Amino acid sequence: MSTLRFHSLKETLKRKPLKISEPKKRSDLFGSNVFNESSMRQSLTKDAFNSVKSAIEKGSKIDRGIADQIASAMKDWALSKGATHYTHWFQPLTGATAEKHDAFFETIGNGQAVEKFGGGQLVQQEPDASSFPHGGIRNTFEARGYTAWDPTSPAFIYGTTLCIPTVFVAYTGEALDYKTPLLRALQAVDQAAVAVAKYFDKSVKKVNASLGWEQEYFLIDSSLAKSRPDIVLAGRTLLGHSPAKGQQLDDHYFGSIPNRALSFMSDLEKECMRLGIPVKTRHNEVAPNQFELAPIYDEANLAVDHNSLIMDMMDKIAERHNFKVLLHEKPFAGVNGSGKHNNWSLSTNTGVNLLSPGKTPMSNLQFLTFFVNTIKAVYEYEELLRASIASASNDHRLGANEAPPAIISVFIGEQLSAVLKELEEVTKGKLSPQEKTDLKLNVVGKIPEILLDNTDRNRTSPFAFTGNKFEFRAVGSSANCANPMTVLNSIMAKQLIDFKNEVDTLIKKKDMKKDDAIFNVIREYIKTSKNILFEGNGYSEEWQKEAKKRGLSNNKTTPEALKARVAEKTIRLFEDLDVMNKIEIEARYEIEVEEYTMRIQIESRVLGDVARNHVIPTAVKYQSILIDNVRGLKEIYGSEFKKIAKEQLELIAEISKHIESINSGVTNMTDERRKANLIKDAEKKAETYCKKIIPYFDKIRYSCDKLELLIDDELWPLTKYRELLFTR
Ligand code: ADP
Ligand code: MG
Fold it and tell me: Which residue among 279, 469, 473 has the greatest number of ligand 1 atoms within 8 angstroms of its CB, and so is best to mutate?
């Protein structure tokens, strides 16, 4: 360990934990920095308030006069809270959030100034956003893009800035962000689910998709994190030998939260409260210095915004506590990576969770309808769902025996499997009235009781039913949830539309009663989609084989997985639902493919640099010390020296071997990179990076990590895993 670094570690350890001053009640803070319904009700005229409400609930237009009124009320509210600036806050396809702050302040001549904010500024802005990723959309069409207010996600104050959630679109209307397709998908699933829910309750007018995410992350001392070029530039360690102690004792999981981390969490939670983010749970995760934060679930668009906001806030608040937050899916080899479970359900404006079994056979038939349709949707579009969570960083996690595999399957538990089996096995053709009654009483009627003790939870499944919601567990910790949520809600919308058509056809053409028709279609779906159901160990070898037999996709790398994004079937899905057109789909694909290449390229460069500039020179230095030592021994012992210096001689040879291996690895990797960079086609380039460059990472790392074990700790220039993971 170098002296310099030792000081910074010592400093860190000396630092007293920050005082945690809790307000009396968190609930008093809740939403205090949000221009929510109650602040609107207080400051808007009845007309203006109703107009916003209807925009939120029905997507209706807000006219210019009313927009002026809302803007003015919003400004007064923001100024009263100490805000000085405003910004259109959006989520471009970089994965980060974007904002450009403008002051409310304006001069009005005669040396005077006022605070101004009109409807025009609220509703639409034109940020100079030419360097946001657009996948060619703005080259081909119109150079400009604009942001437009999303009234369904309330404005909030962050620091001294009023942030107005917006969509970001090209002048020609193509989406350039994550939010636009999500809003369209949510609208599609709303319409489709309302139509189906009306079979059971005519008064249903709206169906909301809910999302409850669980954010995992690592919290690393910031001075230690800064000392690692790989963490600084790639967000993860590219080398580092695993420490003598890792997570094998499981002593961190749910253990007491270290003081410094607690003080960070407390600050973060307070800020969340002010911003109306209902964070509820926090705990240690499996790996050392790994934690989780989860809010109470919310309407999906709002929950996505909250997650984007929180990822940004974590970074800023961590700085105040001398921490660096790592959101990367696999920051450290040898210990668990981080995910972001997406808990998803659908609920009606009448307060019914459509994925929760009810008290009567009829409400259970409704439950079964939505439950089986979800399974069918995932079955039909498993490959697209896999693509929705594909990224260079998530590739490390999926299938690494700590997270779900790259194969998408659905876990529903033993009891519900039995229910589906029973439903499937009733006679082939149309259900007889007796069968229907039996089913209702014997199978459907029992579901709530069944679920009460259905506590079995298979942690290895990427998509699991957990009582009253599905949990999509393959989502990566650094992902924007909008991506998987857009896909999940779109495939569900498509599925429900198909279902309704089939049921209506049976009712009209076969003269079936509504319930019979529903039963019959559900039964067919159970049969056709049962290949997606899997209750066993998702981490096992056998599942890989079995899944192959079943014809399920197993796209292990991002370039392979992403292809489903532009498959004919995907284009048809998104175009039919008006979620995205072909141009938008292809643009996104291009952006994701290029992003993949860039990430691997950066990692490859950083690894090459660290190996050449840090590891090899240190190895040479240490080897020289050994050589001097051997020379000295030879002087003293003459021909006897070989026996005495045996260990040193072996070390010298071993170090040479690793230096050679690193050297050839880096040289060959750089050559491959140069060749790959000449490839014009983005898809081929990404594939080449995946197949030709990534394999060098392990080879180079292997020798670097061996050297870390061989070389004097005093000399080793990089902060070690034990320091990164166990400094609190
Ligand atoms: P886990 O055991 O995976 O930690 P929890 O029971 O703690 O699961 O719930 C995790 C998340 O699921 C929370 O964010 C919670 O708000 C969310 N959740 C609970 N019910 C629903 C629902 N009906 N729809 C969507 N999310 C939900
Ligand atoms: Mg979970």
Answer: 469
